[in-house]
Amino acid sequence: MSFDENLQDAVPKMPLIGDMAPQFRASTTNGPINFPDDFAGKWVVFFSHPSDFTPVCTTEFIAFQNKIADFQSINTELLGLSVGALSSHLAWFDAIAKMPNGTNITFPLIDDMDMSIAKKYGMIHAGASNTNAVRAVFVIDAAGVVRTILYYPPVLGRSIDEIYRAVVALQTADAFGVAMPVDWMPGDDVLAPAPVNVMQLRKNKDSNPWFITYKKLAKNDIYREIQKQKTGKK
Questions:
Q1: What is the pLDDT of residues 185-230, one digit of tens each?
Q2: Whole-structure pTM value
Q3: Which residues are the active-site residues?
Q4: Are 149 and 17 in contact (CB under 8 A)?
Q5: Euclidean distance between CA atoms 108 and 126, whole angstroms
C-alpha cells in the first residue's frame, strides 16, 4: 500500500446525503452534548464556522439567532462548531451581546480544538485552511439521517433564509411525498411524482411534458402538517 493510500485510510470518511450522522460527544457553550442522541426526534442544522471574533461569522451568528424561533417552530435546533476553545467562544458571545445590533446567542457552539469532529464531518478543507473549518452546513433529520450538505468558503456568508427554506422543503417532501421545483417557496406549486403507468399518464391534462406534474399545496397546509410531525399528532 502506498503512502497516499495509508494517508487516505487515516482520514475519516465524511458523511454523505442519506448516511447516518456520525456520533460524538463534545463540550459546548451550553454544556456537554452527546450527538445525535441528545437531539432525538428533532431536526438539526449543524454548521461550522472558520473562527471566533471575525466579521462574517459574527453577522451569521446574529442572523442565526434572530431566526431561531422560526427554526424551532419547525422542530429544528441549531448547533454550531468552531476549532476555537470554549473560553474563546464565550468571550465572543459576550462581545456579540454588547454590540449595538447584537443579541444573546442561545444555541450551543462546540469546542473542537483537536479538530476531531470537524474532520469527521469533512469540515476541514486543506485548500482553504489546515486549522480552521470552512462554512459547512449539515441538515440532519429527526431520525439522525443527513439530508442536505452545503459548503461556503470563509469569505462568503451563508443565507440563513435559504437554510430555513431547505429544511421546510425537506419536511414538506417527507410529509406529502412531493418534490420542489427551482426557487420553490412554501405556498408555491410542488411537483407530484411522475406517472408510473398509463392510467396515471392519462390523468395529466395540462400542457407540460408527461413527466412534469404540478400540484397545488397551500402554505397553511404545509405548516399544519409540519406541526403535526413535531407534536406526533395524526
A1: 999 999 988 777 777 666 666 667 778 889 999 999 999 999 877 6
A2: 0.89
A3: 57
A4: yes
A5: 26
